[in-house]
Amino acid sequence: METIYLGIVIFLFMLAVFDLLVGVSNDAVNFMNSAVGAKVATFRTITIVAAIGVFVGAILSNGMMDIARHGIFQPSNFSFYDIMCILLAVMVTDVVLLDVFNTLGLPTSTTVSMVFELLGGTFILAMLKILGDHTGMFSLGDMMNTEKAFSVIMGIFLSVAVAFIAGTVVQYISRLIFSFNYKKHLSWTIGIFGGIAVTALLYFILIQGLKSAPFMTEELIGWIDVHTPMLVAGCFVFFTLLMQVLHWCKVNVFKVIVLLGTFSLALAFAGNDLVNFIGVPLAGFSSYTDYVANANGAGIHDYMMTSLMSSAKTPTIFLFASGIVMVYALATSKKAKNVIKTSVDLARQEEGDEMFGSSALARTIVRRATNLNDFLKRVIPEGMRRWIDSRFNKDEIIMENGAAFDLVRASVNLVLSGLLIIIGTTMKLPLSTTYVTFIVAMGSSLADRAWSRESAVYRITGVLSVIGGWFITAFVAFTVCAVVTFIMFYTSFVGMFIFIAVAVFLLVRSNIKYGKKEKAESRDVIFKQMMTSKDKSEILSLLRQHVKATFVDYLVFSEKTYVQVTDGFINENLKDLRKAMSATDDQKKMLKKRRRKEILGLRRIPITTAIEKNTWFHLGSNSCEQMLYCLKRICEPCKEHVDNNFNPISPESVKEFLPIREELCRLMERTQEAIENNNYADADDILKKGDDLKNRISALRKHQMNLMQEASTNSLKASMVYLNILQETQELVSIWRHLLRASRFFQGDYVPQEFSQMALAEDHI
Which of 257, 310, 681, 744 is the most exposed place for a label (fewest CB within 10 A)? Predict the structure, then answer.
């Protein structure tokens, strides 16, 4: 029996390693997004600075893991078996939940997930004990600490509201002071700004990051509390002078602030959030060692875990090992980059590829904000408006090549996040590090006018999605952990083993799927180059490559899906028809994203060239879209027909159709080669053969309609579907012919307007 539970404790520590890996990946957004977004240094340098902060924070943590020992449940009322069920369910749920959020690229709170998992597991066992207690001695308050749940929920609302307002106001004031051309307006202000920033960050390190360090005795903490005003004032004077001298020495003070802020937040994260990752397995380890040493023959259901009421004393080896794992995760995790990318993209100064679509709520918010902006324009005097606009002149922006925003905003993000966390700690308000840093970044980007009318609806949808994910985290963590705990409690080792296997399976599958997804997303390097390049001719060349790849991809997809759908109808393969429907819907969403990227590219080429290419770009893009609609119009009746088990298409119809399909595929493949190789020497021949194919299909349609007049009613439904296939096939030929012309003239020299109108009208004669 003891051997089995030793195995469970070992597995808890194995899950803790996974939890550290996925947890650090998620929380990397807390302390790296500003430095990465502003490109204050190379990603490697930023990672090294953050890794040092993480390692120091882990080592200096005194291991006060009491929240996992008795912060949620009252251990004296739970047996050893109860506690092991709760702790194993918490770890299984936590690892899988955080990995899902990392895969989706959404930042979430590790504190919220752990607290609500403990609450869920404790609640279900508490209810079982209360229902099974006939004496009426126990109440829910005797079994669990509900106050912790309310404090976390309150922290969510406070974090969102306070951080967003503060981020917006402080960034707006900072931009008025420095403007986008901040180097022109430094003079003496940079010393004061640097003094405030560095003093705030050092105070943050001292109060928030090192308060639990072993060398921080009660006497030292008390002395710091008494002399805090003097220490803050002295640091402000010293660092104001130091930052001013560094500025005179041509040192970029903003970079110093950003790197120090990255270090301080990383240190505080590791020092205070370490409990979220290793607190639970350490509680399990303590429970096991206490049971083995003191049970004296008592059963696992009878030995109560009163020993967990004492404070934890974590061996240094565990803290050192945790620091190593956290640093490794930070340096190697690709999912960490994905989570950082979400935050950086939502705060990006310029337009680019938007990760999120639009939502009804976001559109309403943008509409109301636009109306409010129009009202303020009427109220604010014109002279003041002109002065404010001059401070927000984006043409003067000083920003690293490829950066999402400038150093001023990055500095504000980090300093303000640290200050808000200090204020929340001082006022005993449970502000979440994740929530504060993310929402401050969103508020500062709004104040910086990064959310234009072209991108605001997408950015707001993204922010709402992330905030919604935070609330979902609490609900899902509570519910899933409660269910897992309930099943484990009644199935004992069988249930525990099954859930352990499920957790391992889900983690492996998640990483495999994420690897495929990342590989697919990493292919679009052309767009990244197009958005970072300053050379107009290079942008045009990259845009042509991007458009060419889009046209080729959709031709390939259309040919493949057309064959899949018609084969599915002929062979009555419902599975293939469903796959084709789903794939077509996915491609429609992907085309929308690709079109937006290419429109952004059109805006960055010379205006005269953009006007010349605009018609052909939209003709080609619309042709891709029409091919998808055409495929769907073919697929839907075929799927319905096969799904209803109606009579199949006649062998005679199949025999006359297959040569038409083969000719269509052959011509589409020639079109693909012409576009891909940018060689249109055979374009006229392809267009002529396409026109001949249309005539053949038209003749076949008339023949089919004549047969339908004579055919029996048993095959009428199949004949109607077949007739629809022929009609849509004829339309598909017209569409890819338009696509070939569009690509030919988009990739080549400008075509006179009268010729373009003649080309567009040719298929309609």
Answer: 681
